[in-house]
Amino acid sequence: MTAYLMILYQNLKTLHYNVVGHGFFTIHKELEDGYSAISKMADDLIERGIPLGFVQPSIQSAVLAYQSDLLPVMARDGHDSIKLAYDGYIKAIELMTIANDEVSSDIQSKLDEYIYYLRKEAEYKFQRYIGEPTALPNIVDEDD
Ligand SMILES: [Fe+2]
Question: Is 35 a member of any domain?
């Protein structure tokens, strides 16, 4: 899971550098906030894991494990960039959710915090931008 965060970090940087067109200034900055947050998460989890016997994933092992997730360097518009960032966040959430079953309770609460953050970013900010609804709103019709 930390190996995937290293890939996600790299992907967000790739998106940050290569976004073009409408909304550039906003999205360029937003993606920087994203890779900064992911970098802090990876750093935090790796440093907590080492005393517990986990090893730092090498960039080589991360690339081998997640080769198909690595984004090619190319110009992308804002919509495509944010959609790819969204997909990356969702995958990170899935991997953190799986890892949550195998770690001690202090790490579980950290992962819960990160999952909450990533979900909020993905399902609120990113999805509002790309315009694809997640869950149906739970609207109760109170008319008689
Ligand atoms: Fe930058």
Answer: yes
